[in-house]
Amino acid sequence: MNDKSIISWKAAGISLGLLLILATALVKPLGVSTQFVVSDAAILHQVAPEFAEDNTYLSKYGEKTDWGIGYGWMLVLGMLVGGAITNMLFGKKRPEADKGSMPPMWKQNFGESRLKRNAAAFGGGVLLLFGARLAGGCTSGHMISGISQLALSSFIFGIATFGAAILMAKFLYRKRRV
Question: What is the DSSP letter of 146?
């Protein structure tokens, strides 16, 4: 990070570590993507219980005693509200804030359409959530909670996630011939 950083990476890392210790001590390891499956399964257990019980994946989630229904959605809501508050407090301090709200590299490669930028961000999020469920957990579950617990699957997930992100960035931002 540069001298204009809002918070140092060291302070952010220590804060995240303390949050993880607190979350694990109070409830269980941190993770978000499972919440969507828990909610789907809870609804299906009520609407179509035979289908939910016969489905190997859904039968593991959504029981009446499942802790995730309330807590998990509070975590999702907290991420949205926290992101909005952080943007309101510090959004103008970002380097690209002076030039519009899109990074120059994005504008150079894909134009200035906010709709295109938002659609790409939303689509990327959907793909990430789908991949997270295939991997049995999201980046917060695997890379924050799982790696801190030295889970081999989380190390594999982290390596695969960063590898795929690097390859995708190289593909998306490659030099194009005109």
Answer: I
